[in-house]
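Hi U.,

Before I forget, here's the chain from the pilot set. I'm dumping it here mostly so it's searchable later in email.
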Amino acid sequence: MAHAILRELHWLIDATADFARVDQRSEELTSVLASPTNKAPGSSCLTRWFYQLDSANDQLQADKHFQFPIQLLDRINSTEKLKSYFMLVSTSDIAHEGVDHQEESNEPLADLTRLILRDGPPNNYAFDSKRKGSLLELVLHVLRDSTTGYWGERYVVDGRVQFIPDQSTTFHVINYLQGNVPEMGEVIDTTLAVKDRDTPVGWTYQGQQYDHNAMDVVTLFKWGWPHASLEQRREIAVEIQKMIDRCLHESLRTDGSFKPLSAASSLEETTNFGVAFLSNAGFFDKSERFWTDRTFPNAELISQRLIAFIEKHKSSGAVGGIYYDSALESLGVHPSVRSER
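Structure:
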């Protein structure tokens, strides 16, 4: 519950000028922290629609029996509503509105891509019959920038609109559509070109490797590998090896956790993204090693260290253990196995 409020509070501070709301949410967080026995679901503590949707979708991904609050979907359940929402949040005029809408665009785009285009609506929700075509049109032909191949946010600066590529949004769309998007060659070009830039455009966070972004990058490379030139493949292989080395020597700690960088990320989330990066890079599983035929002799020992840490801390996960569950599955540990440990 506290982490859910903290997540929304961080967004209010980072992306808005709503100081009254910042004060209100800060007081609510203080109250919750004073009552640590409060176990209300995270989504019930959130007041912004896009965070409520994202939290509910995370719970649905973790538990297919979760009773998704389907009223959340009413806001976008028609071609007109869907387009209206994304047209509103895909461009930010911060000077006049006092809000950066990037997160309000990124999270719903990811969640609705899963709910509408991939997994299907929860609880047999009666989506508008044209929902799939409408969302695909928006995703592939309206919100995407054809020059970079990326998705991102458009900003009004001195009366002109400027597109800023966003790695997270691009990762979400391409991963959930399994690489079936136009101009994957441009996506590879852009991803390599922004490697030294900070998030949300590039790979780093305040100049350091950020395992969350590393996970995004290696996944983009995986889907783009069939479209990459020989020269690009060589560069990709070099960069992935560098990221693995930095992760193992600078991020992974002796207790099996990962060094946190962002104040908005909990230990649970940081651990999940570190594990997910190594897993997606094929560190643990040779069949996932699309970029190299080399071996990693220490992979099994590191895997066991990670599993031990997660098992020890799972019950105290800030996000309720959802991300720890995901990390365990990335390490090949499933619920039936876990119960025997």
